[in-house]
Structures are given as C-alpha cells and as structure tokens.
Specification:
Strand order of the largest sheet: 1-2-3
Helix content: over 70%
Number of strands: 3
Largest sheet: 3 strands, antiparallel
Radius of gyration: 33 Å
Length: 405
Amino acid sequence: MADLTAYLAAGVFLAYAVHRLVVIRRKGADSAQRHVVGFALCMGLAMLFNAPATLSALGRLLPASEAVMLLTHQLKTGAFSFLVLVALALKTPGPARPAVRRQVSLALAVQTVSIALFLAAGPRILGDSLVVPDGRGPLLAGYNAVFAGYGSWCLCVLGRELARHARGTAPGLLRTGLRLMTLAAVCGVVWTSWALHDITVNLADGRQGLGEDLVSSVLGAVTAVLATGGASATLWGGRLSAPGRWLRAHRAYRALEPLWAALYVELPEIALPASAAGRRPGPRRTEFALYRRVIEIRDGHLALRPYLHPYVPVWVAEELRRTDERDHDAVVEAAVIAAALENKRAGQRQDGALPGRAAHTPPPMPGTVEAEAAWLLRVTDAFRHSAAVHAIRGRVRTEASDVRR
C-alpha cells in the first residue's frame, strides 16, 4: 500500500510537471509557473526514488544506497526552495532581486548543512533501516529537523501568499484554485512535519526506516492531488469540464422531451432541422442541442398565444389550495401550456373570447441557457406530474367539448 500511494503521488507530480513543460514550451510562462514546474519535478522524483520498492531495487543495483536516500531528501529540500520562489513571484509588483538572491543563498546553505549532517552521521543501510553508529543519532536527528523546519517554513510562506491572493480574487475558478493550493500548503506542512516522528526514533535508537511509510505516502498523495488540482483549476471551465457539461446538457435535453414532444405533436413547425428525426445528439453536440430545444419550446409557447386561456392562473390558485404543491410559478406555466394545447387540439381559440381579460404573461426569461433550461425543467416536471395541471387539463377539455356541442 505504501508503494502504491508513493507512486501515485510521484505520478501526479511528474505528470503535472511534464504537462506544464509542454505548455511553457508552446506558449511561454512567467517565473511563478517555471518555479512550480521545478517544485513538481523535484518532488515527483523524490517520491519516485523514495518508494520502498524503488529503494529495494536500487539497493541491489547500486553499491551506495545511502546516497539514494540523501538524494531523495535533497530533492525534497530543493522542491521546498522552489515554493518560496513561487511565493516571491506572486508578490505585486514582482519580487525584488535582493529577496530572490537571499532565498537562493538560504536554499544553498540549507542543502550544504543537510549534506554535512548526513555525512557526519555516517549512516549505513542494514535490512530495512538506516542505522548510524552509537552517539551519532543526534546528527541524524538534526538532519531531519533541518528538513522538517525548512520545509514547513517554505510551505507557510507560500500558503500565506496564496491566501492573500485568494482573499483579493473575485469568485470563480481562479479563487477556487488558489484556495486548493493554500489547502495543499497546509497539508504539506503536516506531511513535512511527519519527519518529527523520525527524529524521536533517531534520538532513541540511532536508526530510521527506509522509504515513505504509509502515513507519509498518503499525506504526499493528498498534497499532490490538491496542489495539481489547484494549479490546473483554471482549466476546469474548458476542456476538463467539458464531459461534465455534456452530461448535464444531455440529461436536461432528455428531461425536457415530454414537454417538447407535447408541443411538437400540435405544432410540428417549431422543430428546427433534424430536431424531429429521432436521433440523439452526440456528446459534443449536446449543449447546442439543449439550446435548440429550449428555443423550440419557447417558440411553441409563442405559437400557442391565441389558445391561452385567461382563467388558468385563477384555476391554478384554486387547485393549489387543495394540494401540497409548492412550485406555484412552474405549475401555472405548465397549466397554461397544457390548457392551450387542449384548446389547440379542439380548435378553440381564446384571443378575443373574453374581452377585457388579458392572457397569461409568462415570467421573464432567465439570462442564460442553463438558467432557462433549469426553469423549463421545473415546468416540464409540473406538466407531467402536477395534480393541478391534470385537473385543469380535464377542465379545459370538458369546456371545449361543451362548446362544440
């Protein structure tokens, strides 16, 4: 399980790094994006090398497996250094050169101290543990403390800058991405602080387990998913969100069919080309097909205006007093359409039939296709299932029969 989660985290980091490298090569990028790629590459390679299965395989191939462990820690430390550079690049206006130089100098100093502590501890791999000679446990503990302290500080610097940007960003995908990345930084602090567990073992026994344990791997995977999800959030409104949009549009398209079909039977002229052919739209055409279906329903409603019964809203109010239906506006709209269809079927026009009483005026149309589709879904549901609509449909049918007699 530890191998699986470690490889999952490594795969997420590396896949994101490769994707961003391709984008940067094609479109260019600012310094923050390049630093993010550096972080993802370093962290992905570190997680890949530090997986227990990888360490075991490298141990059989390389004479100095301790060097692999040192490399993985230094890669992680380098990844943390990139995060501070990202935070500096996010500042407005851009980062001051002295601040960048100080961070680079600090990063080099931390790497140097870490390597010195590791070499001074003189660790050797015995079985599934990294063991240091007697009396050198504090050196190994210091090595892990530098890693945990520096990594947590870097993540806190980035998290603070991300949170500041998120507060000043309007609602939308960008702010969602910033919040996810802030959450990733918080999770990263917990992940990095897990090294404190190693410090207690270093001081007590002068040893340390090889590779990522299960808790560390899980924290790493969660951090990777949050970080890459936040960094790619602005893509969610485009290609990444397309399948979800297509699915929602397809469901709405199918759900509107009963109302559309009832209108089409009496008013076949409302169907735009190919609408009545019985073919379902392909995935890439569902949003356009839904837009077309909304237009056709609205056209049908307009074509029924001569048959709109002016007393339907009053009848609906009477019927709703006897039922527990709550969506009053949708029930009125559905009843008006149902009554008009009955009048159209019977050839009973209502325009001018009751002078001085205006026909029903539909509520204002929402501003987007999605909002209008949502409204028509409510109307369709009432058209199919409302007891008030069913009663008014029968009342109009009876009235039309009496007129014909």
